[in-house]
Every structure is written in C-alpha cells, then in structure tokens.
Design brief:
The chain is 68% helix and 1% strand. By secondary structure, it is mainly α. It has one domain. A hairpin with a 2-residue loop joins strand 1 and strand 2. A two-stranded antiparallel sheet has the order 1-2.
Length: 395
Amino acid sequence: MLERMARAKRSSGLTNAKLNQMRHKGDPVADRAIEAVFNRNGVSAVNAVLQKLVRVDQPVPADLPDEVQKYLKETVSLPEWADMSKIRRGQEVFEKFGPLITLCLFCASLPSSYAAAKAVKVLYLTAQLDTNARRRVVETGQFLIDVLSVGSLDDNGKGLRTIQKVRLMHAAVRLLIRERRKQQPNLWHRDWGTPINQEDLAATFLVFWYVVGEPMNHLGVDVSAEEKDAYLHLWKVVAHQIGVCDELLVSDVTEANALVDLVRSRQFKASPEGQDMTRALLVLLDQLTPGHRFDDTIPPLIRHLIGDKTADLVLVPKSDRGGDIRRLQRITNWFYVRVFGRPGQRDSGRYDFVSDIARPFGRDLLRGMFELERGGERAPFAIPDHLADRWELSR
C-alpha cells in the first residue's frame, strides 16, 4: 500500500483533465473505415466485413470494401520507434511465463477491469449483445497467443492481422451502440464517454502489461527489470497498432505504474455491471478447471492477486483458503521480524503456498481453453506446438 501511494505521486505527464478529454475520443482511423461501410450498406455489411476477417492467418480477401482495404494497408506496419529486439525479448517473457501470465490475466487483469465502473459499461453491454461468454473467453486467450508469441509481429506475422481485426471490431461496437441508442436513449449515457474510448483502451493494455508487475510478484515469480521493460515495450507497440493515441503511450515502467494508479483512482468503485461480469467470469473459470475445487483456488487466487479492497468491489467470494494465506503471511512475518529484524519477503511460506496453487491451475486453465467445447465442437483455440509442449499442455 505504501509503495502504491508513493508511486501515485509520480507523474505520468497526464492529468484528470486530459483523461476526461480522452474519454470522448474514439479511433478515427478505424471509425472512418467502418463508417463508410455502414453508410453504404448498413449493419449487415459491417458484420460481413468482420466475418471475412475471421481467418486472421490468411491473405486479405480481395472482395473487401475499398475503405477496409485502405485501412488494412495503412495500419499493418509497425511504428518507426518499434524495437524488434525488445519485442522479441518481451515475447520470450510471455513464452517463459505463459501459464502464470494467463492465470494473472483471468484472475487479476479481468477482475480489476471490472472494478473500473465506467470502462465496464461497454464490456457489460457487449456481453448482453453477445451472450456466448465461453467464446469471448477463448477469443481473449487467442488474442494473447496471437500477439505475444515470438515472431507474431514480424512482417506477415499472425498478430498483425489479429490486431487489425480487433481494432475494426472496436469501431463496429462504437457504431452499433450509437445506432441502437437512437431507438434506446438509455442504452448509453453521455457521461460514460465514447464507447471503447482512448482512456479505456490505454488502461486495458496497461492492465495486460501490468501482470508482470504486482500480480507476478505476488506469485513469488522474479521478473527482471529488463524483462519488464521489454514486455512493456511489446504492449506499447500492440497498443499503438490497435489505435491508442501517442499521448497515452507510456515510455517506461514508472510512467506505466503512475498511469495505472491514476486510472484506478478515477474509476475503481462498485457497480452492478462489474459485479455481474465477475460472477460470469468465476463460473467460467470453474468450468474451465474442473480438476480444482473452486473455494480452494479461484476466489483466494483472485483476492491474493488484486487485494481484498478491489475484490470486495466486484464481490469475489471470501474463502477459508484466503484466510490461510493471510495467516501464513502473519506467521512468517512474525518469524522474520524476530529472527532477522525485518519482515519476510519472497522466501516466505506464503509464496510457496500460492505458487503450489498457481502453477498447476495456470496450466489447467490453458488446457481447459484448448479443450473447450462449444455446441458439440471444440472451440478454435490454437496454440503453437512448441508452446503447448513447453507449457505441458499436451500431457
């Protein structure tokens, strides 16, 4: 807590006033392409474009509208400042810690995102429009695999097309909410800002990066300063490619931490939408990991990773196992203070205890996504063979 308070005093160069402006800004590049398709042939034409881009590893279909073809050509190249050696280093971090990073995404990043009362509005609304929660989870996991695997952002890399499609989907959601609001004025309130606005986009990708900070540290995993910097650069490039404006692209870990804290101070509070999204997430995590007892794994892991205060906002259940973790922490800290004159750190039994839960749970979560069936068929979740072997998913 003291560390976070001290960090919050540092400046990311951004202010509440600037972020308030960013809440009303979308993504002009992708919005123009989708708007042109919509103006010519309506919502059905927009849906047709997105369906044609489902196979992200295939060449661009020749029959896409001219505006979309232009968008795809203009947004495929990485920025000049992108450092390919850092990108590869960041991707190696993901391949090294993949199961634990995935665990932190679903047990830390997503619950924390649901605590952001304004940002969660659009997530909740799109969940209502698309009720297949399992498919959305698989797509989130697939996005990570596609953009974070080594080589995915090289020329003709699979991650490049994945990012372009997601960027178009964001533009389609903004347009769809705007059009539906004409018949349902209460569907979206102006004080929430633009759906999938710049602040929420930047915060989302910071949350994806942030897992190598506090959450991984809470699992007792050492991620070096060099690895954190490379992983941040990787996500900075991904954020740029998906339409985050330059003003919100942080340059280093200090700026990233400061912006995370600023967004938390602006948005974190209880909301019915965030609590509903968390309940759905808990159910899915339980279904994806049938070999783990719910009360012994999912709630205590989430509470351990995001803290009780945030967990309470989204109504993560309390559990006896969470109490066990806290009691272990108190006991080991008492021992270290008495013997060494200082609190116990990463060598305490608490971290061993959590790691014993986390490592097999992270592997089983990925395996559950890989084996997930939907409508009698296995969901199309593809993991490169070398990662499946490295992460012991085929055993």
